[in-house]
């Protein structure tokens, strides 16, 4: 029985072995298809043509830049009667150039039948290591049997890595009240500009403020996807300090980062408590095409508010009144009046030698403010009490609206317009020029200088009415020297680009640019020399007014008074 069992096992094993051997050739055989006969022994030639070639770079400027993907697209056409076999497509740089760009790997097309067309796209990549210069790329299509396409050459320029440089080129603080105080929202406006040669990407600007008692009311971080060389953006951060903030200044630090983490910057600035500020303005920075290294740095403050001149003038007994009326409640705004007032104050303190405590500084003054400062008709005001008899020089500046009296009568009087005045009833709510000059003339001052950036014709004041051209009667002055922005029937224009009244800008420019305004080069700038500078028909207010608004808005500053040779600033020789 055992023998029978062993015999059966042997027979089964032999059967399985036979089946395995018998099936070997089917699942494990390797079949190599023979190459088509027309590839081994072509009966007709292929005719390959590289056609409709196009080369495009990522940003469309025709230059292969760092980390930029560029595409060479084309069609490969077989216009011959024979098949094209094993066509090897490749892109190479012509001999002698090693730009450092990354070229695509070669690829093989197994077959292209007669009359067949295939489309291809080869990707060229810029690298951080590439070098600048023109290069020639060559596209080839080599066929197995030698029926190659004529090569196509592409001339293109490679640009090496150009570093961006993103920095804060200017900044300024502003508030709706014109001051920095607890509980008042402060705006820090900063001009961010790419002053480098390369494109800045993924730019992030982040503000850091004191950790306690100062609260940010805007986003902490602002993102800018891309800044081209020379391009700029204006960014606003808003914050406020509470009444528990005990420091005298609020420090602000702005940190800029970009894609590479190497070409940003950090800038710190601060605003002082109770500091006089500008009110918010709208500033548009035009982005225009610029050649490399030819763009101008963006500024948020006018050129007259930077690099104030040095003078020898010291006038500790001088007294000044500065009024900037901007936010009118019943008529149009005077956009840059507070900017004007703040700049005049800076010049008085830093250039003309006034003590800051001797300056009565008002923004958006009411009629009661005018009464308080100058007094009512034939009355004394606060200014009178500040003047040291025959010692104090008095300087008065006003930027805002003026208007004529629209009531009945043969003589038209002029009025300074407080911010709450209804311009239709200016005789009731305005401050009369007769009272203004009359009270000034009675001051026991050593000298009196009045500078007005306002018009009194009414042409640019009353809305929804036909323009008026009225010549209000100016009171006569004996002691005062008055430098006014325009003639009686003219409008006083704004210089939007500089964020100042047009006249005020040139008045400050006369003081700043003494090389041009000091005609006799004696180091003393007189009121007559200032008037000549601001009134210059080729460079001053009249020219700029015609240039911006045409001859229909002529503006000619006037100087009234007998002491035209009075020195305003002594620069020294």
Write structural notes for this entry:
There is one protein chain. By secondary structure, the protein is α+β, with helices and mostly antiparallel strands. It folds into three domains: 120 residues, Immunoglobulins (Immunoglobulin-like); 115 residues, Immunoglobulin-like (Sandwich), CATH 2.60.40.10; 257 residues, Rossmann fold (3-Layer(aba) Sandwich), CATH 3.40.50.1460. It has eleven helices and 29 strands. A six-stranded mixed sheet has the order 18-17-19-23-24-28, sandwiched between helices. Strands 2-8-7-4-5 form a five-stranded mixed sheet, with no helix packed on it. Helix 3 links the parallel strand 17 and strand 18. Helix 8 packs across helix 10. The longest helix has 21 residues.
Notable characteristics:
Rossmann fold; single chain; 6-stranded mixed β-sheet; Immunoglobulin-like; 573 residues; 29 strands; elongated; alpha+beta; 3 domains; 5-stranded mixed β-sheet
